[in-house]
Amino acid sequence: MNRAEVIDLFIEIKQEYPQFNDSDDEIDRHLKYLKDFPFDTALRNVEQHIKTSKWPPGISEIRGSLGEQIERDRMKTATEEYFEERARARQQACPPPPGWKEAIYAKLGIN
Questions:
Q1: Is the distance from CB of 45 to CB of 60 less than 8 angstroms?
Q2: Residue in 79, 77, 46, 76 with CA at minimum distance from that of residue 64
Q3: Pick from 49, 50, 63: which is nearest to 6 by CA?
Q4: d(CA 106, CA 93)
Q5: Distance of CA 66 to CAs 44, 61, 82, Å?
Q6: pTM tops 0.70
Q7: What is d(CA 46, CA 59) in angstroms, rounded to the nearest whole number?
Q8: Which end of the chain is least crowded, N or C, by CB within 10 Å?
């Protein structure tokens, strides 16, 4: 993230939290901790924070919980792999042989 993107974040935050300190010193301080972080993720985190808190976000809220983000990405990948596997199984599926259902019912004593 660069300085201009931090300023864009501050604009978004300031619209919801007028008391938010958007001084040059604060921009520089936030840039120090956000320069390695992607802007689009930070913006998403700020938007989510605005929906759930009456207080302005700190740097940790802007960055979000990295562990939760990693777990969310892992679960998303696992879900996509599961659905791909189910799609492959669906393509390879075939109906049971004729009389199979009736044979099972006969063994169970169901008419």
A1: no
A2: 46
A3: 63
A4: 25
A5: 13, 10, 24
A6: no
A7: 10
A8: C
DSSP secondary structure letters along the chain:
--HHHHHHHHHHHHHH-TT----HHHHHHHHHHHTTS-HHHHHHHHHHHHHH-SS---HHHHH--HHHHHHHHHHHHHHHHHHHHHHHHHHH--PPPTTHHHHHHHHHT--
The pLDDT tens digits for 5-40 are 999 999 999 999 999 999 999 999 999 999 998 999
Task: Find where tokens 């976000």 sit.
Answer: 57
